[in-house]
Amino acid sequence: MLPRTGLILSIVLLACASSAHAQKRADIVFEDFEGKDYGRWTATGTAFGRGPAQGPLPGQMAVSGFHGHGLVNSFTGGDTATGTLTSPEFKIERRFVAFLIGGGMHAGSTCINLLIDGKVVRTATGPNDRAGGTERLDWKAWDVRELEGQTARIEIVDRETGGWGHINVDDITQTDESPVEEIKTSPLYGETYRPQFHFTSNKNWLNDPNGLVFFKGEYHLFFQHNPMGIEWGNMTWGHAVSTDLMHWKQLPNALTPDALGTMFSGSAVVDWHNTSGFQAAGSKTPPLVAIYTAAGGTSPESKGQPFTQCIAYSNDEGRTWTKYSGNPVVKHVAGENRDPKVVWFAPTRSWIMALYLDGSQFAFFSSPNLKEWTLLQKLDVPGTSECPDFFPLAVTGKPGVEKWVWTAANGHYLVGTFDGHKFTPETDLRQVDFGGNYYAVQSYSDIPEKDGRRIQIAWMTGGSYPQMPFNQQMSFPCTLTLHETSDGLRLFREPVAEISRLHEASHTWRSLTVSPEDNPLHGLKSELWDIQAEFEPGTATEIGLTVRGEAIVYDVQKKTLTCLGHTAPLDLEGGKLKLRILADRTTLEVYGNSGRVSLTSCFLPRPKEQELGLHIVGGKAKLLHLVVAPLRSAWITAGSETK
Ligand code: FRU
């Protein structure tokens, strides 16, 4: 498909008439709905309003995927309103009639029809037939080869008054090349919506990262997994290893459901001093110990059992696991208590467990040997629940100053002190990530001291992976650092430096004054990007980048950074704005001012939408520095362990 000119029945010339396109006739844009009204179209009823909508209408979710500013949106007056919108006559002159469509999936009552002699000869609906869903428009095309030369009309219909009782349409075009992209469901790791440098399970469902531990050169990533299905269930610990946090090799499942329950979230540690006694006789290699929740009552086999905390160990670098015969090690305390995260506290030579109890209640326990646990403290943190993490972190730029950070599943955190018995928060509850898909965060245990990083992975809860053999993905691993800022101690998160190993030849700009009409990025194309930019806003009121069709926008006056409908507060720093953006096939991860805030979000761009744009509004900005690197896929890099 080619860009539109905005004129009804205008003919768009091929932008690049390569020999491959030689026989393809120019597209005919029949209607782009960029006008103030419907022009020669006839509307009946009230649902279509007086003219094209400019995006979502009152009470509607964010509408995306349409082109330009206008679209047909029959949500005027909500789902209950009805009506029709009928085009003037036109001649069918190309092989396909293509259009962007969204809204309800009610055959005959939220639809677009092709009429010949008043009869419906082709019809299509939006994609939604149940609560939730998406207001995104996508391409559909009718093959009309056999109808070429005939006179037709298009009719857009909204006769539905219940849920998803509306239809959205844009860009009706006659074309010889269908814009509908084929979705590849194979080969493994090469599927259309398979993230290329984020972890996904080879197949089926995944949620929380579990048991993040580094041992003998390998990062272990266990994960909540349903080995039997594409949706949540049968909780099992899946397992993958990597030497660089990007190339993952999936191993056999580590922990499978038993009579105490299915395997819910937890953590893993290296028991360097063999406090547990699990080390194999005669071996010098310390055991790995996993601390997990047995979710009693979530399977027929565990009927009547409560949720308890259990342990398992491995003496072969995590390849096989033995559950402790004395399980559970922490009996039921409250509700569906779960998600133990364990850390070694050297001064008292004890293990400390952060545990989720119920509601917004958490607890800390301590143990000399991972087997016997004593309750230390309960902690109520309104606004949080599930998956606590607890770790020490040095304050950047203050040698010798270390604090303890407590995080909950949503990544909200407290910073304070810990003396082996009591955690004393010194801040209010804080937030570093503002994206739509950041949950069940966990950080790595046992990163060697000479590396010293605190590396966190989140489950990118809620993305959509149509027709894929897998469901859900992990975030890109981030390094957490602690900074003294004007409003106290704050966590920053930035992608791990290893990402640069996936860079293809990068493009760099320095000291460039940019105006609204400039796009120095024009012509660059890739599905996968690592972009780093630094701006001085100057007289611009808005600065941003468009990546895979989505705008990442900094509003200079409001001091906000927005991506995919989510907004983070962000002040300029020394008058400057720093942006870092990672784009994968189904994700955008945006970091503002060196990770002071981040926006971790899933999306579903059109596979062919790969261009980049610069977005300057209201004046001139100075681009101090811009590095744009297309990325290689981690699944196909030479020497990758992945497959
Ligand atoms: C968080 C969570 C955990 C639980 C696990 C079950 O996403 O609900 O609290 O252990 O998922 O899969």
Overall residue-averaged pLDDT value: 93
Q: What class do helices, strands and sheet pairing give?
A: mainly beta
Low-confidence stretches: 1-22, 637-643
Task: Describe the global form.
Answer: globular
> How far is the N terminus from the C terminus?
35 Å
- Give the cofactors and ligands: beta-D-fructofuranose
User: How many extended strands?
Assistant: 44
Q: Percentage of helical residues?
A: under 10%
Describe the sheet with the most strands. 6 strands, antiparallel
Strand content: 35-45%
Radius of gyration: 28 Å
Count the DSSP helices.
0
Question: What's a quick, concise take on this entry?
Answer:
The protein contains no helices and 44 strands. The chain is an all-beta fold and 643 residues long. It binds beta-D-fructofuranose.
Task: For this entry, give a set of tags.
single chain; 643 residues; mainly beta; 6-stranded antiparallel sheet; globular; disordered N terminus; disordered C terminus
Report on the architecture of this protein.
The chain is globular, with a radius of gyration of 28 Å. It has no helices and 44 strands. It is mainly beta and 643 residues long. The strands form 9 sheets. Strands 1, 2, 4, 7, 10 and 12 form a 6-stranded antiparallel β-sheet that branches. Strands 3, 5, 6, 8, 9 and 11 form a 6-stranded antiparallel β-sheet that branches. Helix content is 0%, strand content 43%. The structure holds beta-D-fructofuranose. Beta-D-fructofuranose binds next to β13, β17 and β21.
